[in-house]
Amino acid sequence: MAQKAANGATGSEALEDSIGSVAADPEPISEAKVPRTERGRRTLRKLLDASAIEFGEKGFHEASVSSITRRAGIALGSFYTYFDSKDALFRALVRDMSENVGTSARAAIADGMSALEIERAALTAFLDFASAHKEVYRIIDEAEFVDPASFRDHYETIAARIGQRLHAGSQGGEFRQDLGEVEAWAVMGMNVFVGLRYAIWASETDTLSHDDIAAQVNRLLERGATRRS
Amino acid sequence: MAQKAANGATGSEALEDSIGSVAADPEPISEAKVPRTERGRRTLRKLLDASAIEFGEKGFHEASVSSITRRAGIALGSFYTYFDSKDALFRALVRDMSENVGTSARAAIADGMSALEIERAALTAFLDFASAHKEVYRIIDEAEFVDPASFRDHYETIAARIGQRLHAGSQGGEFRQDLGEVEAWAVMGMNVFVGLRYAIWASETDTLSHDDIAAQVNRLLERGATRRS
Amino acid sequence: MAQKAANGATGSEALEDSIGSVAADPEPISEAKVPRTERGRRTLRKLLDASAIEFGEKGFHEASVSSITRRAGIALGSFYTYFDSKDALFRALVRDMSENVGTSARAAIADGMSALEIERAALTAFLDFASAHKEVYRIIDEAEFVDPASFRDHYETIAARIGQRLHAGSQGGEFRQDLGEVEAWAVMGMNVFVGLRYAIWASETDTLSHDDIAAQVNRLLERGATRRS
Amino acid sequence: MAQKAANGATGSEALEDSIGSVAADPEPISEAKVPRTERGRRTLRKLLDASAIEFGEKGFHEASVSSITRRAGIALGSFYTYFDSKDALFRALVRDMSENVGTSARAAIADGMSALEIERAALTAFLDFASAHKEVYRIIDEAEFVDPASFRDHYETIAARIGQRLHAGSQGGEFRQDLGEVEAWAVMGMNVFVGLRYAIWASETDTLSHDDIAAQVNRLLERGATRRS
DNA sequence: AATGAATGAGCCTTCATTCAT
DNA sequence: TATGAATGAAGGCTCATTCAT
Fold first, then answer.
1. Is the CB of residue D54 less than 8 Å from the CB of residue D68?
2. Is the dihedral angle over the CA atoms B157, B161, B164, B169 positive or is it negative?
3. Contact A35, A41 (CB under 8 A)
């Protein structure tokens, strides 16, 4: 199963990881303050996990700082030991999650895959990840209204990566030469909406596996993006 | 220019129109109360126009009822003569806009077009509409958090329409026989994300016209969805 | 049945009657404006009936002018053709009802009754009236907070009447000579609370008739609570 | 003076007391949240005292949360640290006061009193209490419209207690055997209305002491209104 | 670091009353 | 007289953030 490819966490590990390098990082992604004690790190983790659930379930505005701290099992006031504001927490979450989505996709790509195989594997990994972390989808989407810069950055980054893959496919002779940014956004849109329908809104009556779905999208790509022999 | 195809309004005309036929409408889309005087109709219109702008610019949560009435030039309390709540207004707006987006796309389709030409025309119309009414895009997107049912309904309806077009294309021998729901969502995703990039986030340096962009997407569809001769 | 003694209306007839003499009345009880047309009189009546129900069911603050006019089947603005304010309507209602309660009690008193028989008949009549017009009870009670003067006046008037009856009973040699204001208020209290319990809060399991209850209270008056040696 | 018997407070002490034992209390009467700090307890007290005055003076609807917090000398928002709503505060107050009224009456009863003496002492205590805490009377009365269940419960509880006393008097051979619920409500009514007239509406010209008044009501109980032959 | 009380700006909504038709 | 839209003051409540312990 491609499930393995999906990072099994909400992204807080990565966020925590990045924290360690905040000082050295010229552009710190995380807005979390750095806990100095083990206890502090544990509290930060609880806060991140709780907020991912709360934001995912209720959305940014309905989730309150107090509901988050309540879920995390800490006192309201403690929140501000770790984040400057509710916005800052949300931004940290979005940016971290944004990174993670890409990570899981890239992890699915193995050496020796054809360009088409790569697209298929990436979509399957994305579907797996989205199924397992529906809140990530919701949170990133809501960033359009809470942290527009991150939202845009998220999709531009992904589009750029897809663009690179398409270009590589062209170089390898598998794809057409004239694939550019338009095609990259189109491919991303296919993936995102297929994910919306079959991962986020998956219904009980759906019978196709994530692999099957990716295969169907792949066929769309194949006969369209491939070069005529 | 395909601009002509796009409905040039924010949707308030349609909303107003539907009001006139509420009695006959088995499922009234609008949640607005029905004004009985000419003055009332004028006020309702002002309210709808002002709210579309406010919601578009600030988003649902940042836009306040008082900011909306201020922009509309009416008293705060008058708002509730027309809508039961801020939510009700938003829902009315979303549902109405949702209808309008489809309307403009369908208006772009002319008799005698091939299946591919239809897709291209629909996308061009969508890009035109989205360019002219960026707030519509934003408002419908935010419905994911404020009126999820409408949001989902919006995309499911569009997917269904695209599915019908693909099916018709298959019947006409132009498209493959095995196109289904997955392909419909993939096509919708291409259109939406290309719209996001080239209509909503259109940058000054972009040189491609909406038609050019639609043509590029069309080529992706053509070599993919078409039957091999 | 003593039911006959109870005025079968909410009091609006009496109010209307009094309207005719407003000009001549040095202290007009009703605050209603005087309609000049037959249509106007009908509208006023609808307003009074509707408000008695609304105030009785919801209380003064929960009943709104618009809920009253809606129930009356007239337009909101028309309200102010008949009353200067919501308070004025309430006051008119209270004062009129206050009069009616006394009327029904006095109607129950027949010539030739003994002093004790009079008390019993008055209580029975009150219980009948209260059962049939629970809203009257509630409205007069709420006057304590909306129109305190009327509330106090209501009970002082009744106490005075009871005082007169007690005095007459003394004169007739049936009652003690030393009955005064304290006893009058005590008797009123008995009646009101017995009414609260057995008319307003009457429960399905109560088996005593209003006459039976009045008889029991009568015995208390007759010989107190003590045992005869 | 029986004044001593009356609890000299508005009831907030009792409310506070009950808070301390909330955990053990199977049915917590108070709807107040439990403060965990000393400062919190002080604030709660200020809130309760201020609200008793405000509700007593202005009534429930005219008293605003902001007027209460202003009088209490705390910030508006702090109110909601202690009560979920204005209604909840009122209910807490009513229920607590309801308890207290009974307490003061029972405190007035001494061992060895005859049944009649008990009634007299109870009424005197009630008159004292009502004189000193007119706001309590008003607040409980207004509960008829704000918290009807408590209002009814209040009087049903008192009636039950009076019924027990009457029954005990019968058992002791002092009262008639046939005294029941009707007589209990009648006695309560006497007390309440005598209290209304001579405690709440006491006028400067009244010369009778609370004891004198209670004695007169006592005589009514002892031998009714009739003349001894 | 943690806690939880305190703060107050700000928001949605209600509704008595006025006004123009 | 009747109508119903318009008005705006007022109120309850929320919640991000600060503060004292």
1. yes
2. negative
3. yes
- Joined tokens for residue A123: 């979509």
> Quick check: D19 pLDDT over 50?
no
User: Rounded to a whole number, what is the distance in Å from the CA of A15 to chain B's nearest CA?
Assistant: 25
Which is nearest to D52 in space by CA: D81, D105, D15? D15
> What pLDDT is stored for residue B177 in this prediction?
86
How is residue C214 written in tokens?
A: 């009045």
Residues 75-104 of A with CB under 7 A from strand E: 75-78, 81-82
- The single-letter DSSP state of residue D96 is H
What is residue C64's three-state secondary structure? coil
Neighbours of D57 (CB within 10 A): 14
Tell me what pLDDT residue A174 has. Answer: 86
**The pLDDT of residue B227:** 43
Classified as helix, coil or strand, C179 is coil
> Is some CB atom of chain B closer than 8 A to the CB atom of A155?
yes
| C170 residue type, one letter | S
Residue type, C203: S
Chain D CB contacts of C207 under 8 Å are: none
Q: How far apart are CA B194 and CA B216, in angstroms?
A: 11
User: Is residue A187 a contact partner of residue A163, using CB atoms and an 8 Å limit?
Assistant: no
Ramachandran sector of residue B122 (left: φ over 0; alpha: ψ -120 to 50; beta: rest):
alpha
What one-letter code names the amino acid at C158? I
Q: How confident is the model at residue D226 (pLDDT cuts 50, 70, 90)?
A: confident
3-state secondary structure of D11: coil
Within 153-182 of chain B, which residues have Cβ less than 7 Å from strand E?
none
Determine the residue of chain A that is closest to B193 in CA distance: A189
CB of D8 closer than 8 Å to CB of D132: yes
Could you tell me the two tokens for C129? Answer: 């009236």
B192 vs A180, A189, A201: nearest CB? A189
Q: In the 79-118 stretch of chain B, whose C-beta falls under 7 Å of nucleic acid strand E?
A: 79-80, 84-87
Which of D174, D220, D223 comes nearest C186 by C-beta?
D220
Asked whether the beta carbons of A177 and A91 are under 8 A apart, the reply is no
What is the model's pLDDT at position A30? 65
CA B50 – CA B56 distance, rounded (Å): 10
State the chains in contact with B (3 or more Cβ–Cβ pairs under 8 Å): A
B residues 83-142 near A, CB within 8 Å?
Answer: 138, 141-142
Q: By C-alpha distance, which of A107, A99, A94 is closest to A51?
A: A94
B44 contacts B3 by C-beta, under 8 angstroms? no
Q: How many whole angstroms separate alpha carbon D176 and alpha carbon D166?
A: 9
What residues of chain D lie within 8 A of the CB of C187, using their CB?
190, 225
C86 touches strand E (CB under 7 A): yes
Region C98-110 average pLDDT: 88
For residues B124 and B198, give the distance between their C-alpha atoms in angstroms, rounded to a whole number: 11
pTM: 0.86
Touching A: which chains, 3+ CB pairs < 8 A? B
The CB density around residue A154, as the number of other CB atoms within 10 Å, is 22
**Max CA distance (Å), chain D:** 69
Proximity of residue C38 CB to strand F below 7 A: no
pLDDT digits (tens, 9 = 90+) for D151-205: 999 999 999 999 999 999 999 999 999 999 999 999 999 999 999 999 999 999 9
Q: Closest Cα to residue A213, out of B180, B190, B191, B154?
A: B180
Chain length of chain D: 229
What is Dmax (Cα atoms) for chain C? 69
pLDDT the model gives residue D33: 85
The residue of chain A with its CA nearest to that of B143 is A142
